[in-house]
Amino acid sequence: MPNFYSPEDIIRPEILALSAYHVPPATGMIKLDAMENPYPLPSALRDEIAQLTLNAPVNRYPDASAATLKATLRQALGIADDMDILLGNGSDEIIQIIAMAVAKPGAVLMSAEPAFVMFRMIATFANIQYAGVPLRKDFSLDLDAMLAAIAQHRPAVIFLAYPNNPTGNLFDPAAIESILQTTSGIVVVDEAYHAFADASFIDKLSQYPNLLLMRTLSKSGLAGLRLGLLIGRSEWLKQLEKVRLPYNIGIMTQLIAEKVLHHTTVLSQQAEAIKSERTKMNTFLGTMRGVEVYPSDANFILFRVNAASQIFQALKQHNILIKNLDGSHPLLENCLRVTVGTPDENSQFCAALRTILSETV
Ligand SMILES: *Cc1c(COP(=O)(O)O)cnc(C)c1O
């Protein structure tokens, strides 16, 4: 019998030091913590999906190139013919593909913090160094700090979410363009919340050879399918394709996403409903004493209170789950993030918060 290794003996120390991405249990709760679209698909469309799944050849591997789905995406999203598309099992997987592909010894992955937590986590998984450059106090991009960090670290890749998660704002596009013009590496503009913002870098792809644009269907209503995409020049995407596992997009995802993409008005109407609820919630939060609310171009709202953990717990007692960001980054002290839900969910959240705030002061 050999002397068996324990995990501590063979797992990389930086993995041992991580805490796993925590998804809190939410059964029976009003779930406003994960930027999901709260609306189901219309029942006629769900019937069509049922028919598709009935006949899906699940004994076969899916189309490894997902050619039909890509063609539909190209049409639905208005992707230029001279740009390639890479598909991921969620855009999380695309971040991982990029990080693995560029992870030479000493290579750096950079972002502006507070950022989407997966940028840092995936950098660790892929064994690439991570550099987070703090945003300004108002969550705008600190261009001077970014340019200094670029000069210092020479990052292989910079990830910028546009709008940013968890702050909800769009960075100044001119600042992002300065970064594109300065850095030698690639810049991935992550437009996960594009459906709720009236801005995009998609038209800049032809101008900047080092720009890659990432989207996902998750936040606009198909989180359960897991489909993300990267748009960019073939010289980049054909290299990244080598790292993508051949059957990463399952047949159900291919069939259902394609079907729904032929009904994009359904998703855009839901996004419009979410945007108008966002306005209402923002106004409500603005009227609450002891609440500082930040403007949002996404389907969630960041706000600051006096005792975030206490209010977070009290909302849980009211059966409402949001996200507590206190302690996750110095700039997010006492910050909470609420996803915009249905009108009914949002009014329950607002009523509960009003009650809690009147009790805690
Ligand atoms: C939610 C999110 C993603 C990941 O979405 P997937 O569900 O993996 O497609 C990527 N980037 C940002 C900024 C996000 O908030």
TrEMBL record:
Pathway where it operates: Amino-acid biosynthesis; L-histidine biosynthesis; L-histidine from 5-phospho-alpha-D-ribose 1-diphosphate: step 7/9
Cofactor entry: pyridoxal 5'-phosphate
EC class name: transferase
Molecular-function GO terms, alphabetical: histidinol-phosphate transaminase activity; pyridoxal phosphate binding
Keyword Signal: no
Pfam families: Aminotran_1_2
GO biological process, one term: L-histidine biosynthetic process
Ranges where the Aminotransferase class I/classII large domain occurs: 28-353
Quaternary structure, from the entry: Homodimer.
Family of the protein in this entry: Belongs to the class-II pyridoxal-phosphate-dependent aminotransferase family. Histidinol-phosphate aminotransferase subfamily.
Protein name: Histidinol-phosphate aminotransferase
Name of the coding gene: hisC
